[in-house]
Amino acid sequence: MSRPLSNDLFLRALLREPTPRTPVWMMRQAGRYLPEYRATRERAGSFLALCSNPDYACEVTLQPLARFPLDAAILFSDILTIPHALGLGLEFEAGEGPTLAHPVRSAADIDRLPTLDPERELRYVMDAVRLIRRELGGRVPLIGFAGSPWTVATYIVEGGSSKTFARIKAMLYAEPTQLHRLLDKLARATIDYLNAQIRAGAQAVMVFDTWGGVLAPASYLEFSHAYMARIVAELIREHEGRRVPAVLFTKGGGTDALAALATTGADAVGVDWCTDLKDARHAVQGRVALQGNLDPSVLYAPPAVIRAEVGRVLASFGSGPGHVFNLGHGIHPDVAPERAGAMIAAVHDLSPAYHS
Fold this sequence. Notes:
Helices cover 47% and strands 13% of the residues.
């Protein structure tokens, strides 16, 4: 039996339950801004080797918790583990980002995609989840995650990162049936993957829709939002005697995307730094908790400025439950760790005033 959580503020906030202060964690909190992470990656030999070794993944997941009083750990992995497991030839080129040797661009390519068993092809992720839960010992909850079908599809079709998304948008407009077939397969794989993470011990899950904001509004609803809604509908929602919250995050979607995500059955939605939390709160009409949304570049500023900007974010959300403090996207790799510490300290110091 798993140990009871000594700190469940994060889970309670996602369920809009009262908390004495606003919980805080950071997207990419285990990553390149930490010298200890860079040392572990050097030992691993490559980013993929780091992700696919449960011992290394556990080590880097726990590193930020040794430095900072964070309220959640997030599994160290990558949104492209599913394409990797599908045999699409994933590589991470230094300075170039991810590339896939076998992009999916035709009906025949889609037909060839295998059905994944996450406990087989992605066993290293599940082993990492189990190990992290054991090593956490109930200190804080563990977040599992996946990329949204649309976001993962952009890499699969483009063959890597893209600035214009020309190939996948050509498929969207010229061959929408084929794109829906691809997204359907990715949604099925994502549901199975996240549910396997939950069974292995993830206590909340998050879907990162990093590139949903590049879509026109109608296309967003059809090709991104609809598949995230399907994922939420098929997730395990109760495990180990408590609810497993689901968080959805579309970067660049604005209030229209937030309002749509609030109808999916998710427990919370992430907010990037381009939308004030007061406007996000109005858009979701109390249906979900909110997570965010300090501009990651604020962490380049002196501690006094960081404190003032944290105060601005807290004031924008206002009083009451249902807020998880986070950055509006991942922490930048060249941020000094001490600046992240200043942000966390400010949340601890300033947020109790909004919880009575």
